[in-house]
Structure to design on (187 residues):
C-alpha cells in the first residue's frame, strides 16, 4: 500500500481489526522500503516503533530530540506519530519493521534479540508476534508449531502463553507484544 504521505510503499504484515484502514486500526505491523531521504507521514494518536532490518541504516530526527542513527543492530526506536519526524539514509535504501498502536486503545512493546539454540519466551500480552528478521527458527506454542524464515511472523493470541523458540543458526528475532488499553469513561 502507498505511504500516507505518498513517499513510498509499505507491505502490511498484520493489522487489527483485520482489514482496518490506517484511520480505523488499533495496531499495525508493516515492512517498508525507504529509498530516499525525507519526512515521515504524520499519525496523530499513534505510538510508533521502528527497527532497521536491512541496509546500512538511517539517521532519524524526531521533533527537537537529538538525531539518532538506527542500524540493523540498534534497539527498536519508539516515538509519537504526530511528532514531526524525518530520516536520512546512511548509505542506500533500507527495509524497516514498523509497529504502530493507537494510544488509549492499544499499546505495544518491541524487543530485538539474536538467538541460536533454544530459548523460552513467556508473554502476558493480549497478542504476541514473533517476527524473524534474519535466519530461521521454529516457534512452538502449546500444540501449534511454525517454521519461520526471514520476514515470517508467528501470531500468538493467548495470554500467559509460554513459547519455545529454536534456531539452528544465528537468527535475529523481534518479539512484538500488543496490549489492549482500558479507557476510563467516568463510571
Amino acid at each position: 500500500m502507498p505511504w500516507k504521505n505518498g513517499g513510498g510503499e509499505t507491505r502490511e504484515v498484520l493489522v487489527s481489526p483485520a482489514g482496518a484502514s490506517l484511520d480505523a486500526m488499533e495496531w499495525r505491523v508493516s515492512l517498508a522500503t525507504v529509498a530516499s531521504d525525507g519526512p515521515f507521514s504524520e499519525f496523530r494518536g499513534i505510538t510508533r516503533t521502528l527497527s532497521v532490518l536491512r541496509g546500512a541504516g538511517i539517521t532519524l530526527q524526531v521533533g527537537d530530540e537529538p538525531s539518532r542513527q538506527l542500524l540493523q543492530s540498534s534497539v527498536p526506536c519508539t516515538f509519537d506519530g504526530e511528532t514531526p519526524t524525518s530520516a536520512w539514509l546512511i548509505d542506500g535504501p533500507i527495509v524497516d519493521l514498523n509497529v504502530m498502536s493507537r494510544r488509549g486503545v492499544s499499546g505495544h512493546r518491541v524487543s530485538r534479540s539474536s538467538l541460536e539454540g533454544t530459548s523460552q519466551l513467556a508473554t502476558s500480552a493480549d497478542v504476541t508476534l514473533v517476527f524473524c528478521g534474519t535466519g530461521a527458527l521454529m516457534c512452538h506454542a502449546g500444540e501449534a508449531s511454525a517454521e519461520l524464515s526471514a520476514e515470517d511472523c508467528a501470531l500468538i493470541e493467548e495470554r500467559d502463553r509460554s513459547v519455545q523458540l529454536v534456531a539452528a543458526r544465528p537468527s535475529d528475532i523481534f518479539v512484538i507484544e500488543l496490549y489492549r488499553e482500558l479507557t476510563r469513561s467516568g463510571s
Q: What stands out?
A: The mean pLDDT is 91. The chain has no helices and 15 strands. The two ends are 40 Å apart (CA to CA). The CA atoms of residues 50 and 77 lie 5 Å apart.
